Amino acid sequence: MKQVVADAAIREVKSDMILGLGSGSTAALMIKSLADEMRSGKLQNIKGVATSFQSEVLALELNIPLIDLASVSQIDLAIDGADEVDPGFQLIKGGGACHVREKLVASKADQLLIVVDETKLVQNLNLSFPLPVEVLPNAWKQVQEVISEMKGSSTLRMATKKAGPVVTDQGNLILDVLFDDGINNPKDIEMKINNIPGVLENGLFVDLTDKVLVGKIENNTPVVYSPSRAS
Ligand SMILES: O=C(CO)[C@H](O)[C@H](O)COP(=O)(O)O
């Protein structure tokens, strides 16, 4: 499912574009498909803007030319994965702890294209997938206390192949937050969390997404569709 949706995303790319290169497993497949199209000459003069150390390393390995976020005034198209997508195309991202740069790139892009498999579509955000919140290392406990006053329970994200917490590309920590009733007003929660001292950014992407491509299995065959945004 991820491969077909990654391939479908590349069909939206045109030569001479500056592209935001997302993070995560679906975005990684998209970056590989992009490299294939560039190698075959079907896409020319593409420049990528990485959203993470992961996408930067992959693009370098695949000889996709990169430019720094600070040196571009505008990005034509950003393609990225997501952890949850609601019917209004509001998102939770940051399962890979990359949401700070992902949001910077998405905000600078003319178009944000999200690539997911069907399991990521939800009616209400945050009922099962916790909202990632990037916090300064010495502020995590204090932020956790404020979030609990907002009726959110949070856990410090721990690394799996390192003792101790996950450290982001910016050198910060991640709190994964679940609200008792999920998130019904993403715009409000996004602002309230970002207003807590010590918070750098959270994984709510509000009113940024232009199009979603969804991969699903139909009659044992992976297919892609693009749902309409609910108003
Ligand atoms: O936001 C992200 C990383 O911070 C990813 O895009 C998100 O976690 C989806 O990843 P995957 O395609 O592996 O399911």
UniProtKB/TrEMBL annotation:
Reaction equations catalysed: aldehydo-D-ribose 5-phosphate = D-ribulose 5-phosphate
Keyword hit for Nucleotidyltransferase: no
Gene3D superfamilies: 3.30.70.260, 3.40.50.1360
Active site: 102 (proton acceptor)
InterPro entries in UniProt: NagB/RpiA_transferase-like, Ribose5P_isomerase_typA_subgr, Ribose5P_isomerase_type_A
Any one of the GO BP annotations: pentose-phosphate shunt, non-oxidative branch
Gene Ontology cellular component terms for the protein in this record: cytosol
Record-linked Pfam families: Rib_5-P_isom_A
Keyword Cytoplasm part of the UniProt annotation: no
Domain of life: Bacteria
Pathway: Carbohydrate degradation; pentose phosphate pathway; D-ribose 5-phosphate from D-ribulose 5-phosphate (non-oxidative stage): step 1/1
A GO MF term: ribose-5-phosphate isomerase activity
Chain positions recorded as substrate binding sites: 23-26, 80-83, 93-96, 120
The entry's keywords: Isomerase
EC number from the UniProt entry: 5.3.1.6
NCBIfam families with a match to the protein in the record: PRK00702.1, rpiA
HAMAP family cross-referenced by the UniProt entry: Rib_5P_isom_A
Free-text function comment from the UniProt entry: Catalyzes the reversible conversion of ribose-5-phosphate to ribulose 5-phosphate.
Assembly mode: Homodimer.
Assigned protein family: Belongs to the ribose 5-phosphate isomerase family.
PANTHER family per UniProt: RIBOSE-5-PHOSPHATE ISOMERASE (PTHR11934)
Name recorded for this polypeptide: Ribose-5-phosphate isomerase A
Source organism of the structure: Prochlorococcus marinus (strain MIT 9301)
Gene for this chain: rpiA
